């Protein structure tokens, strides 16, 4: 379980360490909410866990030197606090879980600059998904996701900026009622 956690954190770090002109321009954010839920009624949560997946058959990916899961949890805690939702283990109204994944063999259509034709290229990608679950019913009421490119040899500062951006933008999609 510890190795899965480490792999997940490492994967997320790579996701958020893409090399774009802007630190965050390649990160895409999406979210889906249960339209019947009253999000303003939720005031407490507890952590359910985190899950990671890695698709790197060639063993190319190099894990970062920072604890991604710890950083992500900190950022999620911060965003939930901003919404007036606090971490209480007993009688929590929400359960929070996040999923990280890295796919070093992800494919994308790119335009060949020589002939302007589309070609399929390998573009390593990563994603972070955060889910909020109603503790009473067990139903997922909201999922937010950040997807981005992976860049090798990114700095810790750049990775932290990308994580901060991703989590902040994900939670901007959480309904306020």
TrEMBL record:
<dbReference type="Pfam" id="PF13590">
    <property type="entry name" value="DUF4136"/>
</dbReference>
<protein>
    <recommendedName>
        <fullName>DUF4136 domain-containing protein</fullName>
    </recommendedName>
</protein>
<dbReference type="InterPro" id="IPR025411">
    <property type="entry name" value="DUF4136"/>
</dbReference>
<keyword id="KW-0732">Signal</keyword>
<feature type="signal peptide">
    <location>
        <begin position="1"/>
        <end position="22"/>
    </location>
</feature>
<feature type="domain" description="DUF4136">
    <location>
        <begin position="33"/>
        <end position="175"/>
    </location>
</feature>
């Amino acid at each position: 379980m510890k190795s899965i956690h480490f792999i997940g954190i490492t994967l997320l770090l790579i996701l958020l360490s893409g090399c774009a002109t802007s630190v965050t321009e390649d990160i895409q954010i999406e979210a889906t909410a249960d339209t019947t839920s009253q999000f303003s009624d939720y005031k407490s949560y507890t952590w359910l866990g985190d899950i990671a997946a890695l698709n790197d058959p060639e063993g190319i990916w190099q894990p970062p030197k920072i604890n991604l899961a710890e950083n992500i949890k900190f950022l999620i805690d911060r965003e939930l606090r901003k919404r007036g939702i606090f971490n209480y283990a007993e009688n929590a109204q929400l359960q929070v879980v996040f999923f990280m994944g890295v796919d070093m063999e992800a494919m994308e259509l790119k335009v060949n600059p020589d002939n302007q034709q589309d070609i399929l290229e390998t573009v390593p990608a990563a994603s972070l998904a955060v889910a909020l679950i109603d503790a009473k019913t067990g139903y997922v009421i909201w999922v937010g996701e950040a997807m981005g490119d992976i860049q090798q040899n990114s700095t810790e500062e750049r990775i932290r900026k990308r994580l901060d951006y991703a989590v902040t933008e994900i939670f901007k999609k959480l309904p306020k009622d």
